[in-house]
Backbone:
């Protein structure tokens, strides 16, 4: 072969160019080393720094050689070796990483069902193992490269949260609407055999991944226990904005009751095989079915609480102590309205009855609203827009205080999905509004507020 026809050897992948320093804390180790905002942190102890996880991971060393470029990625190179305590921070705030996007087209994807006109970030579909480790976001693993897998193991980014949905390859490809995706079992086995713990999620789509498919999924995943720690099964959510999307069956009360019997059999079979039930239906199935969710007192930590498993148990866990501390009477009559959804009403009903029976001069009413943003098929309180709360307040005037669920607000700026803020709601409604969290104690505190302090002890 001639020299002209010979291909040059492949170049090694380029090292990360570093990450931009947004802020340097005053009197910090980084400031004393000479770093400033606008610099680019390139390496720590000769390890290239490509994102904030690299920065956090490598900054724990007690002897730390910093390499950076002053003023920008093409600035003059500088370096400094520091000595620090293991827990001591070096004092840098660095730019966030660019999120890896999801390229699946899952038939049940909630993002595809959003109405137009919402905040831009709501339409972002992330598929980033770093967000899975940091915040518990679920990934399908369809975009995981071997380099990503190696990094997860090398840096012990554990646990990782996987949206599995089905282990049958054909069914999974149908659910994700994407061909030739990596088989999920070999991917999970590779990670778990190397010490990575995994939590799984199944979005249940009636007629697609239930029945025998679900049995197969749980049986194959149970072979990865205990490294695969739990599987949550949640019902799909169908909004009114599904034009040109696949036709899917909703989870009806009849279906939910039948499914719960089936999943109970799978749990018993799995527990007999591995000593642990492994798969847990979310409380939403029980509420849809009109049944009481189970208690989880036998578990030191409720599996997948953030996914709605054990939500009701957690809410009422300390009810007896709360009731024992309730005042017998309030100094003045007080009317409180709790605005929620049909499922939220089922959660609150028992507590509201206790409050009304035990506390004289207190009246708590539950005001049930439908979701005008997503439609009647969405009945979880966390997806209610601010306009629905405003509408209910205007339709039911005269209460001393209105309670709204805290999970309907974005944490850092108290903003609803329709971009209204809590302060906007208060100003437009002109009434007293409080938020309640995920426990009965927080609901009582929000309902009574300063009225508790006014009661003689």
Residues:
């Amino acid at each position: 072969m001639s020299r002209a026809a010979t291909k040059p050897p492949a170049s090694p992948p380029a090292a990360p160019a570093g990450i931009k320093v947004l802020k340097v804390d005053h009197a910090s180790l980084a400031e004393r080393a000479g770093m400033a905002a606008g610099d680019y942190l390139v390496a720590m102890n000769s390890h290239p720094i490509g994102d904030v996880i690299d920065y956090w991971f490598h900054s724990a060393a007690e002897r730390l050689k910093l390499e950076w470029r002053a003023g920008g990625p093409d600035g003059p190179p500088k370096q400094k070796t520091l000595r620090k305590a293991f827990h001591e921070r070096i004092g840098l705030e660095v730019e966030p990483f660019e999120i890896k996007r999801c390229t699946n087209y899952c038939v049940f994807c909630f993002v595809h069902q959003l109405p137009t006109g919402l905040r831009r970030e709501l339409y972002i579909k992330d598929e980033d193992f770093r967000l899975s480790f940091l915040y518990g976001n679920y990934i399908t693993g369809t975009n995981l490269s071997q380099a990503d897998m190696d990094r997860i193991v090398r840096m012990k980014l554990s646990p990782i949260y996987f949206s599995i949905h089905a282990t049958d390859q054909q069914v999974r490809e149908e659910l994700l609407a994407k061909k030739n995706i990596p088989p999920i079992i070999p991917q999970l086995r590779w990670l778990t055999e190397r010490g990575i713990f995994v939590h799984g999620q199944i979005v249940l789509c009636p007629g697609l991944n239930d029945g025998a498919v679900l049995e197969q999924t749980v049986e194959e995943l149970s072979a990865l226990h205990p490294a695969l720690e739990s599987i949550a099964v949640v019902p799909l959510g169908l909004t009114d904005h599904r034009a040109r999307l696949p036709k899917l069956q909703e989870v009806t009360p009849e279906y939910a009751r039948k499914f719960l019997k089936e999943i109970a059999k799978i749990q018993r079979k799995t527990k007999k095989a591995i000593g642990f039930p492994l798969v847990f239906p979310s409380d939403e199935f029980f509420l849809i079915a009109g049944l009481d969710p189970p208690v989880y007192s036998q578990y030191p930590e409720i599996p997948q609480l953030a996914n709605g498993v054990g939500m009701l148990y957690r809410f009422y866990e300390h009810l007896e102590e709360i009731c024992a501390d309730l005042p017998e009477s309030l100094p003045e009559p007080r009317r409180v309205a709790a605005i929620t959804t049909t499922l939220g009403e089922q959660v609150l009903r028992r507590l509201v009855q206790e409050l009304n029976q035990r506390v004289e001069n207190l009246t708590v009413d539950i005001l049930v609203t439908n979701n005008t943003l997503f439609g009647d098929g969405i009945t979880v309180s966390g997806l209610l827009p601010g306009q629905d709360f405003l509408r209910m307040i205007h339709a039911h005037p005269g209460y001393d205080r209105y309670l709204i669920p805290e999970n309907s607000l974005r944490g850092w700026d108290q903003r609803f999905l329709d971009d209204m803020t809590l302060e906007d709601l208060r100003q437009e409604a002109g009434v007293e509004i409080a938020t309640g969290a995920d426990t009965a104690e927080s609901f009582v505190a929000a309902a009574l507020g300063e009225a508790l302090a006014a009661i003689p002890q």
About this structure: DSSP finds 16 helices and 15 strands in the chain. The longest strand covers residues 329-340. The domain at 111-316 is CATH 3.80.30.10 (pyruvate-formate lyase- activating enzyme).
